Amino acid sequence: MNFIDFHCDTASAMLEKNEPLLTNSLKIDVERLQEGNALAQFFALYIDKEHHSSTYNYCLEMLENFHEELAINSDKIVLCQNYKELILAQKYGKIGAFLTIEEGDAIEGDLEKLEFFKNRGISLITLTWNYENDLGYSNYEWRDQEKGLKPKGFEVVEAMNYLGMLIDVSHLSDRGFKDVLEQSRKPFIASHSNSRSMTNHPRNLTDTMLKKLADAGGLTGINFFNNFLIDGELKEKLEVSKITDMVRHIKHIKRVAGIEVIGLGSDFDGIPNPVEIADASEMSKLSDALLKDGFSYDEVEKIFYKNGLRIIKDVLT
Questions:
Q1: pLDDT tens, 1-51?
Q2: Alpha-carbon distance 264 to 24, whole Å?
Q3: pLDDT at 238 over 90
Q4: pLDDT, tens digit, 9 for 90 and up, residues 102-157
Q5: Predicted pLDDT of residue 33
Q6: CATH number for domain 3-315, candidates 3.30.360.10, 3.40.50.1820, 3.20.20.140, 3.40.50.720
Q7: CA 246 → CA 187, 230, 260, 286, distances in Å?
Q8: Does residue 62 contact residue 73 with C-beta atoms inside 8 Å?
């Protein structure tokens, strides 16, 4: 079965560890994506802004490195920015690569930099990571849940709607989620977030948020990090992420918000713990588990790629 994964940190890991795109020691490479039958992979340019004097410059460095790797492997994987380009890639037997930025600070509060990144292939921006930035506040450790978008954040939401870019609210505070919901004229996503009712972690979404996201035509990508999946109290030990817990979250989200709001957001190469789905080549383990648990084939297709195709078609230009 095809899949669209809305979040991985492979692009940043490639630069930091000097790894190529075709085959590497990471969780995602072209060969693993081919083996797993990937339709598209969203590659995040992840930035910890506390470690870089210029998030913009570091983001550019990652972007140029990834463009070089795409050029080397152009017979197998191609940059896409919209639905038509993805369907064309599929027609020629290529994987669609969508580029994203995980940390809105990369635009340094400058809408011209936002448009520059759009023109260089960026399709999605995660508005915050774990820190406050010029756009708003994160949901790191519950500390800023009631603080939302800043004036520049509202401007960026409006500009991203105009430019045909996907707004990503994973990592954003609860109040920020509400602000995006009220401000955005187009569907938005939580690229890698699970259910807070199933695992009480600030990075997950409440049932109300999931319902609102579904009503807005959006999507949340199931994250494979153990502490976002675990059944019970969070533990310091990073245990293996279990497929049964992924299914548990998916069943709950389907029950409270519907099947159309569910997608995949593995967070491969960004999570520190082992996963029963070892890498991108093993995504079928999850589809098999869902089918075994009573999901219909059409429902699993919606989770794996059809809901993603809808979002891409509705938003990206």
A1: 999 999 999 999 999 999 999 999 999 999 999 999 999 999 999 999 999
A2: 22
A3: no
A4: 999 999 999 999 999 999 999 999 999 999 999 999 999 899 999 999 999 999 99
A5: 98
A6: 3.20.20.140
A7: 24, 9, 16, 8
A8: no
Angle at the Cα of 58 from the Cα atoms of 54 and 59, rounded to 5 degrees:
115
Residue with tokens 């809808």: 310
234 — pLDDT class (breaks 50, 70, 90)? confident
Whole-number Å distance between alpha carbons of 268 and 277? 10
Would the pLDDT of 235 be above 90? no
Closest by alpha carbon to 135, among 100, 106, 104? 104
Q: Residue written as tokens 């919901």?
A: 181
